[in-house]
Each structure stands twice: as C-alpha cells, then as structure tokens.
TrEMBL record:
The lineage of its organism: Bacteria, Bacillati, Bacillota, Bacilli, Bacillales. This is OsrF. InterPro entries: S-Me-THD-like_C, S-Me-THD_C_sf, S-Me-THD_N, S-Me-THD_N_sf. It comes from the Bacteria. Residues 176-324 form the S-Me-THD-like C-terminal domain. Residues 11-145 form the S-Me-THD N-terminal domain. It comes from Virgibacillus oceani.
Length: 349
C-alpha cells in the first residue's frame, strides 16, 4: 500500500479492529462508527504509507484526550478541524500529513475527518499500535529528548464547558495541562500535537498500524457473531483466550481524567488504567501492559472496553504478547511504564 482513498467500509473495519487493539481503551465502537460517518460527509480521507513522504517532511499527531466513561463529553467535527488549523498557525514548518496517537475503536480513525476537511493525508503509522493511558506514552519517546518543547492545540466541550487553545511547554507539563483541560471540558477534548519529521516516525512509531487494524477488523467481521470471533482474533494475533466467565466484581473510578479500576471473573483478576494493565489467574501473571489484554462479550463475541464491563456480564479475556504487536518505542521505556505501578498498585517492570 502506498496511497489509498479510504471508504466507509474501511472505517468500519478500522473501528472494530482498532477496538480490539485498544486493549480496553481507545474509545467506544458506537462513537467510532459515528465519527466514520462524519468523516465521509465532508470528503474522502486518504491513507498513505510512510514511503510517500520525504525524510524531513513534518507530520502532526491528532488524538482524543480524556476519560472514556465520562457522560458529559463533547467534541464536534469543527473542534477537531480547528485543532489542526491552529497547529498550522503555531508551528513554523509545513505539515504534510496527519497521524493518530493510537489504535482504538474511536482513535484508529482519528484524523480521517480532518483529512477529508483539510486535504492532508493520514499516515499509516500511529504513534502507537495499541491504546495507552498517558500522552507521554503516545509521544514516540520525545520525552527522552533534552529540552524538547511540546506544542499541543486542543478543543472540546459545549456551552459553559467549551474550551479551545494551545500550550507550549515540556512534554509532561503540556500533556498534563491538556488532560486537566479535558476534565473541565466535560471529560474529553480533541488535540493536535507534537509535529515530528518522517525520519523520527520511522524509528519510533508503529509503522503499518492502521493497515493492521483494518485487516484485523475485516477478519473479525467475517466470522459469524458468537464466541468463534474471539478464537479467530486470538489466533490471528498469535495470542490466547485465558478465561471465560461472569463478572463477579467490577470497580471503576474517574481519577484525574482517567478510568481506573478492577475486574474479577472467577479466579481471574484484571486491573485497568483506561486500558487493561495486568491480568492474573490464580494469582499468576498472564499478561502485563504493553501486552494486549482485551475483553469480549463471551456470548456475542463483541469486544468490550473497560468502561463497558458490568457485574454479571459473561466475559472472555484474551492476552497477546507485546512481541506480536506493532508498538511505539515508548512501550519499551521503563521510566514511562514505571508510572503505571502506583496507579494500579501492581508491578509492571
């Protein structure tokens, strides 16, 4: 694949495949499908491979920032487009393409609407090939560059919660600022951030990650509804179904713009920080972020994000080793991974 005019069918596959690769985060399927319709209402987005750009061309990342479970979120099409337009004003070099921050039901197609509206293509290289909780984890290790200054534009909310602006600061400070703004906006903002050149993307992003999501979604949708879908996904990703059973305990707390919680299914325990962080069976670790841990409705085979889990629901859990995923360089940064431990009270490193 070099250049491809995307279709609504591609978007549907990307939403379902992205939801699975989201590992419990990355937004809701319904939101992703709705965003897909909006993306194609104003034009046709285009997907390009990294070889279509020059080494020194700049690409900017678009994302959604916030807690998926919040009930007051609002980010409309114009707000998403405005973040890209504002980045053009704030950044001193031409932007040649857009990239999403991660794979997820709502996030794999980040940038498709903006692409259709602005004419900028979407790069087949998400910052990360799986969903992750913090902005720094989606920054392709820019956090390791001394004196790096992050530029982030944002917009979201409605009525008295409506907000729009930009921040220029260290990566940690700018990311935490946008996260704080998302809380004030009702739980979510659209963001455009951290332009980088193609050489840097090749070394640090999940090149080919959008195509992987589309292909995974195509496989998932080709299998009739039911538990066979879960087996097909696990086989395709070279993972395994760990356990299937009814949820006996579920706990979710919104903390600082994140969903943090715990799931118990018989003798299986899951922790999540937006995305699933650990899975243990009989007290033995069966998967640890950035391994892909994902939940499905055990009866229909539909993927379930962490915020959808409810007590009594019959759930199947899969785990896929990180080696089988397309991942950013940040997923091997122990300093970033270490930040998970005090949140979930579990060892990650």
């Amino acid at each position: 694949m070099t250049r491809k005019i995307l279709s609504l069918d591609d978007a549907k596959k990307a939403v379902y495949g992205g939801c699975i690769l989201g590992g419990g985060g990355g937004g809701w399927i319904e939101d992703g499908l709705e965003k897909s319709k909006l993306a194609f209402s104003s034009g046709k987005p285009e997907l390009i491979s990294i070889d279509e750009l020059y080494a020194e061309d700049y690409v900017t990342c678009v994302s959604l920032v916030g807690a998926p479970s919040s009930k007051e979120t609002h980010v409309d099409s114009q707000q998403l487009i405005n973040t890209v337009k504002r980045m053009h004003k704030e950044f001193d070099k031409p932007i040649k393409a857009l990239m999403t921050n991660e794979n997820g039901a709502s996030t794999t197609i980040n940038g498709w609407l903006q692409s259709a509206a602005t004419g900028l293509p979407v790069l087949d290289a998400p910052s990360n090939g799986r969903a992750h909780p913090t902005g720094s984890m989606g920054s392709m290790n820019l956090s390791e560059i001394d004196d790096y200054i992050s530029i982030q534009t944002f917009a979201g909310g409605k009525a008295h919660r409506k907000v729009e602006g930009f921040v220029s600061a260290s990566l940690d400070l700018s990311s935490s600022t946008v996260r704080s703004v998302s809380v004030q906006a009702g739980g979510m903002v659209g963001a455009c951030r951290n332009p980088v050149n193609v050489n840097y993307i090749k070394e640090n992003a999940a090149v080919g990650g959008i195509t992987q999501a589309i292909e995974l979604g195509e496989l998932f949708l080709s299998v009739p509804k039911g538990p066979e879908r879960i087996e097909a996904v696990a086989s395709y990703l070279k993972g395994r179904v760990i356990h299937s059973g009814a949820v006996s305990h579920f706990e979710l707390n919104e903390t600082g713009g994140f969903d943090v919680g715990f799931v118990q299914i018989d003798d299986l325990e899951l922790t999540f920080w937006n995305e699933y962080m650990t899975v243990e069976m009989y007290g033995q670790r069966k998967g640890t972020f950035p391994d892909l841990i994902m939940t499905f409705n055990a009866e229909t085979g539909m993927p379930l994000v962490s915020a959808e889990i409810r007590k009594g629901l019959k759930v199947a859990v899969i785990s896929v080793p990180k080696e089988n995923l397309r991942l950013s360089s940040t997923m091997f940064n122990e300093k970033l991974l270490k930040t998970i431990e005090p949140i979930i009270q579990k060892k990650i490193i």
